[in-house]
Amino acid sequence: MSNPELLAKLQQLSRAEKFQMMQFLTAELAKEEGIVLGNEAAEIWSAVHTSNGAAAQLMQLLETEKKQAQNV
User: Fold this and answer.
1) CA-to-CA distance for 61 and 11, rounded, in angstroms?
2) What is the pLDDT of residue 53?
3) Does 66 have pLDDT greater than 60?
4) What is the pTM of this model?
5) Residue among 8, 1, 67, 3 nearest 34 (CA)
């Protein structure tokens, strides 16, 4: 499936399905970066459903986790 086809399919998803896709992709990216998402990630995903600022919180969490992983 080409990228434009995939994007068109993603646009057709419900809001909840889009959040599930975001969660999946974020977990995949974190895994590729060697970041282990803990309980903080669950808190962020809960906030995603209720807050427009959740994306910024998620990025901040990922940056924090990445920095912590680099310091180990």
Assistant:
1) 26
2) 67
3) yes
4) 0.50
5) 67
d(CA 46, CA 39): 11
pLDDT of 26 strictly over 70: yes
- Give CA–CA dist 48/16, Å, rounded: 10
Residue 11 and residue 37 in contact, taking contact as beta carbons nearer than 8 Å: no
Go through 6-22 and write b for each residue having 16 or more CB atoms within 10 A of its CB, e for each that does not. eeeeeeeeeeeeeeeee
* Measured distance CA(63)–CA(44) in Å, rounded: 13
CA distance 27 to 7: 19
Report the amino acid identity of residue 17.
Answer: E
